[in-house]
What we know:
InterPro entries: BUG, Bug_dom1. Pfam families: TctC (PF03401). Residues 1-29 form the signal peptide. This is Tripartite tricarboxylate transporter substrate binding protein BugD. It comes from Bradyrhizobium forestalis. This protein has 12 helices and 9 strands. It is an alpha/beta fold. It folds into 2 domains: 37-128 and 254-327, Bordetella uptake gene, domain 1 (D-Maltodextrin-Binding Protein, domain 2, 3-Layer(aba) Sandwich), CATH 3.40.190; 130-246, 3-Layer(aba) Sandwich (D-Maltodextrin-Binding Protein, domain 2), CATH 3.40.190. Strands 1, 2, 3, 4, 5, 6, 7, 8 and 9 form a 9-stranded mixed beta sheet that branches. α6 links the parallel β5 and β6. The protein is globular and about 80 Å long.
Amino acid sequence: xxxxxVKRALAAVAALAFATFSVATCAFAQDYPKRPITxxxxxxxxxxxxxxxxxxxxxxxxxxxxxxxxxxVAGAGGSTAxxxxxxxxxxxxxxxxxxxxxxxxxxxIYPKLPFTPDSFVPIAMVAKTFGIIALRKDFxxxxxxxxxxxxxxxxxxxxxxxxxxxxxxxxxxxxFITAAGIDATLVGYRGAAPxxxxxxGSQIDGVCDAAASVSQSINxxxxxxxxxxxxxRLATLPDLPTSAEAGLPEFEAQGWNGLFAPxxxxxxxxxxxxxxxxxxxxxxxxxxRFADLSTVAPDDNEHAPxxxxxxxxxxxxKYRKMLADDAKQ
Length: 329
């Protein structure tokens, strides 16, 4: 048995070590950030996540007094970027933006990933997005009813582009073809932007995308909007019908974007990042940018890291069921 005196001495050493660690952590958090921060975006420049990240990062940087540098790391539906983010030092100088695809569905689609949901600490939700199906401008169908009829008459011949298996755009595609009951070929790209480029050039029949990155192309008639998976029409696309209006209420595509840090990042640092994110999405600059993109900032009660964690937990289970067949391939 360990003598009582020794036990007390060991307890005192442990208490001193904890106190020293706590003081050091607090001092680190007070000085944070002392240099630029990297925000990893899991897709190519120009896509939804990238556009949202750049708008939020600029204003977060102002709030924190440091520049936030965007690093685009495309590949494997976002899992390449998340793997890099999970290996980063948990010091608040590397964070990542993610969505239901990269931070929930990916665990079913890629079951052997080198990271898990527990590899990340949630910072804050920063945006709510709306999914759209858009077609090449010369596609023969003029509305959703005609499109579904055409697809059923030509099973497997329609190809729809997305930002990679596991991305939020891929989930829009899966939700859409499931609701419509059609057989379409889903074509993965290294981001939403190159997929949209091919749709504009009529290299593919259409794209599953978020309003944030496809609205401008629809308004400029480079592609034609088919339907938005929302309960209300979007202000930037007033002529685009909702799924219910188009006769397919089962198609729902409302998503989220959130910020994450590697596991082990000090709570005080997470709190600073959360406060900066909240400040950023409440600025007029971000509000205007989001409005232009038909993207919505979180409500006042949706900023907490705990809320983002709940969304991840919910969507991991949701997509485990929806994508069970993908996991078997």
